[in-house]
Amino acid sequence: MRTLKVALLGCGVVGTEVARIMTTHAADLAARIGAPVELAGVAVRRANRPRPGIPDELVTTDAAELVKRDDIDVVIEVIGGIEPARSLILTAFEQGASVVSANKALLAADGSALHAAAAAAGADLYYEAAVAGAIPLIRPLRESLAGDKVNRVLGIVNGTTNFILDKMDSTGAGYSEALEEATALGYAEADPTADVEGFDAAAKAAILAGIAFHTRVTAADVFREGLTEVTAADIASAKAMNSVVKLLAICERSADGSRVTARVHPAMIPRTHPLANVRGAYNAVFVESEAAGQLMFYGPGAGGAPTASAVLGDLVAVCRNKLAGSTGPGESAYAQLTVSPMDGVVTRYHVSLDVADKAGVLAQVATVFAEHGVSIDTVRQQGREGDASLVVVTHRATDAALSATVSALRSLDNVRGVASIMRVEGE
Amino acid sequence: MRTLKVALLGCGVVGTEVARIMTTHAADLAARIGAPVELAGVAVRRANRPRPGIPDELVTTDAAELVKRDDIDVVIEVIGGIEPARSLILTAFEQGASVVSANKALLAADGSALHAAAAAAGADLYYEAAVAGAIPLIRPLRESLAGDKVNRVLGIVNGTTNFILDKMDSTGAGYSEALEEATALGYAEADPTADVEGFDAAAKAAILAGIAFHTRVTAADVFREGLTEVTAADIASAKAMNSVVKLLAICERSADGSRVTARVHPAMIPRTHPLANVRGAYNAVFVESEAAGQLMFYGPGAGGAPTASAVLGDLVAVCRNKLAGSTGPGESAYAQLTVSPMDGVVTRYHVSLDVADKAGVLAQVATVFAEHGVSIDTVRQQGREGDASLVVVTHRATDAALSATVSALRSLDNVRGVASIMRVEGE
Ligand SMILES: NC(=O)c1ccc[n+]([C@@H]2O[C@H](COP(=O)([O-])OP(=O)(O)OC[C@H]3O[C@@H](n4cnc5c(N)ncnc54)[C@H](OP(=O)(O)O)[C@@H]3O)[C@@H](O)[C@H]2O)c1
Ligand SMILES: NC(=O)c1ccc[n+]([C@@H]2O[C@H](COP(=O)([O-])OP(=O)(O)OC[C@H]3O[C@@H](n4cnc5c(N)ncnc54)[C@H](OP(=O)(O)O)[C@@H]3O)[C@@H](O)[C@H]2O)c1
């Protein structure tokens, strides 16, 4: 029984846990795979850091050399980012190794090229850890629902922003204050851009949409709005509607089935919606499909050990495939649906306007909505010496219709400003 | 590109939907599998029923002959029950066909023999639909968590009993009345034994425990208590504690890791627990593992289309494996942990006693609990002319200690009867 050799690229938050579990649970992994697996090398950036539990002789700063070794069966890439991860993975495939990655940024940017390289090499590319940490989501979508037609994927896939929004909701804090706390507690990185601007969630949305709809979707196809513009007033306004604000990733098939959209943006959802109760760093994703109906998956969306659990599940799978001389399902993009821009997306909107406190303003505003075919569900008006705020919640309308409405509103003399526009979901 | 031929055994609630989706979604299935799949025969019991959408010439009442055909690649067994399902599946393997089944009863009774036959034949045995309908659970446990150590699986896996308990909770109805309504609405079968006595849930618990703990577990290993003894008073008592009663399936690893238990019984859980909000025919299962932490899976636990979704996901997988000349993961029972009886299980209890309304009774009762090492959390006493009821909620204790306590209580003169004992979970 030959030993399978694993090269670990990256030994940070996730990699350290991968190495630890590979060592402490070696016997179980061997039994489940059908052969022992051995850590053959660990590539890092900084040579002289302590790496508890990892034999010094395994550590190298030359990742390129490690993946070029011809005795490596599986490469686990947990470095992150586009380069050198991309080149290292391509080299791994050239060497015939299979790859397990947690790298959502890379997969969302260039997944198809990687899949093609894997297929050409007869190797596997697995990446359960790239979306929603420990939560099995890629495999259920790619395999369990392979006989069904997925119509919608909707969820909270970024723990950092969820933590920040939670804080704003529970304390009334503004965005900056909540971000500061998240950073202090280690929930946000020093440079939080990828999280707070929605890049991380958009990458995950692209990966999910691609698998769910059997269509190539990249991060560039995903409409993206972060939460840096969400104000304490928005949160308060959501509260007044018995709603909360969450950063959602939404992948949808159009009603006629021919087009799909993927988007990431803050949205108000009713406090009674199951996603409203997803707290802190947890993630939860709903999947709606034709036959199965509505499924929900919930769990830790990040963290070293949870993410390592997903990586190791993939490791077992690709090792089994190696031993069997087979590969798992590769990219499935046969449906080639059109990925539509945001214009055609239909949803509800919460529009907050600063208006002159005069008779007839509401009628004027209502007329603009009507002229653009956007029907109003509720209006709340609050007077404040001379000017007032008007909160309009619409019925379902296209993004294009709403945008046109907002442009027209801005040109009204009595509208001093559009304080915020937020989508309303989950009803 | 050869066409894969599928024999469908059974065309009832589930089979009809399987056939329908195979027909209406043939092109998608072909694209995902990499080859067309064709319904080659449909075995039923009654010859002359209308089978809309299924060509007459495919229908046969001779299932045995159908599975003996040498051109069948995959057999889908959705007849249910032990025989003839078991023999038909074994014949299918002898013929080299792979099998997809939704048959929890059979898999829990004799899964190992079926797995062995599949392995001997180099064929696949998949059964995602056997547990929790459409919810991907077998695959996540067997594959996504293959690199992790599962410690606990806890969930609601039977929709019929969940519907009945829901009714009792919302209307105050007794068990018989709620069952009648469930039957009238089609949520319970004419003979509800398998559901209400917990056999169905116990079969699922056996399957889940086997996969989660890499150990052979059969239905006979599962402690089973149905809900026929649950009274309106129990439900009311749960309400008073801000709890609800649910029929839970619980599979646990002992603290030292060497033993496992599987059990199905009604239990009180706090109304704030996520499982408390699982309504009607929905199922939800928590999986706790060492690295991943706590995951939850939620969705429709039964029904023709949802169950067919799971069957078809398996169909795609076994067809892909066939084309690749490989097989998916088979039985994994290497851990061979001891499956312990109920005695050692540690949980909390809600004990309701009818006692004489005399001074000193509470002290007497409390002494009995203390003598058996069962520590009391709360006591509620309600007087009723001459006699009274005493509701004791304990801290965590073994089943053996609780049983001994109850025996001793029964022998007290002042204890007129033990009205009910129910486990308290989810805290
Ligand atoms: N952290 C999570 O909760 C989480 C969850 C899901 C997915 N992921 C994904 O997992 C991946 C890793 O995340 P992480 O949090 O573990 O990152 P991290 O803590 O920053 O670790 C990155 C590791 O990669 C090494 N590295 C950086 N550049 C390298 C290079 N050029 N050559 C070799 N090694 C290099 C670093 O070396 P040094 O140790 O010398 O700095 C470090 O060990 C990312 O793709 C991330 O998106 C993370
Ligand atoms: N229903 C659900 O929601 C659900 C959910 C999960 C799993 N399952 C499982 O799926 C399986 C099927 O359930 P179901 O609800 O579809 O059952 P069902 O509606 O009773 O259908 C059973 C089918 O098997 C046929 N059949 C019975 N005996 C046969 C025999 N000896 N030879 C050939 N065909 C025979 C019946 O023929 P006729 O049509 O002529 O009667 C019928 O078509 C069971 O194992 C069940 O536990 C069901």
TrEMBL record, chains A, B:
<keyword id="KW-0915">Sodium</keyword>
<dbReference type="Pfam" id="PF00742">
    <property type="entry name" value="Homoserine_dh"/>
</dbReference>
<protein>
    <recommendedName>
        <fullName>Homoserine dehydrogenase</fullName>
        <ecNumber>1.1.1.3</ecNumber>
    </recommendedName>
</protein>
<keyword id="KW-0521">NADP</keyword>
<comment type="similarity">
    <text>Belongs to the homoserine dehydrogenase family.</text>
</comment>
<keyword id="KW-0560">Oxidoreductase</keyword>
<dbReference type="InterPro" id="IPR019811">
    <property type="entry name" value="HDH_CS"/>
</dbReference>
<comment type="pathway">
    <text>Amino-acid biosynthesis; L-threonine biosynthesis; L-threonine from L-aspartate: step 3/5.</text>
</comment>
<dbReference type="GO" id="GO:0004412">
    <property type="term" value="F:homoserine dehydrogenase activity"/>
</dbReference>
<comment type="pathway">
    <text>Amino-acid biosynthesis; L-methionine biosynthesis via de novo pathway; L-homoserine from L-aspartate: step 3/3.</text>
</comment>
<dbReference type="InterPro" id="IPR002912">
    <property type="entry name" value="ACT_dom"/>
</dbReference>
<dbReference type="Pfam" id="PF03447">
    <property type="entry name" value="NAD_binding_3"/>
</dbReference>
<comment type="function">
    <text>Catalyzes the conversion of L-aspartate-beta-semialdehyde (L-Asa) to L-homoserine (L-Hse), the third step in the biosynthesis of threonine and methionine from aspartate.</text>
</comment>
<dbReference type="InterPro" id="IPR036291">
    <property type="entry name" value="NAD(P)-bd_dom_sf"/>
</dbReference>
<dbReference type="InterPro" id="IPR016204">
    <property type="entry name" value="HDH"/>
</dbReference>
<dbReference type="InterPro" id="IPR045865">
    <property type="entry name" value="ACT-like_dom_sf"/>
</dbReference>
<dbReference type="Pfam" id="PF01842">
    <property type="entry name" value="ACT"/>
</dbReference>
<dbReference type="InterPro" id="IPR005106">
    <property type="entry name" value="Asp/hSer_DH_NAD-bd"/>
</dbReference>
<dbReference type="InterPro" id="IPR001342">
    <property type="entry name" value="HDH_cat"/>
</dbReference>
<keyword id="KW-0791">Threonine biosynthesis</keyword>
<keyword id="KW-0028">Amino-acid biosynthesis</keyword>
<keyword id="KW-0486">Methionine biosynthesis</keyword>
<feature type="domain" description="ACT">
    <location>
        <begin position="350"/>
        <end position="423"/>
    </location>
</feature>
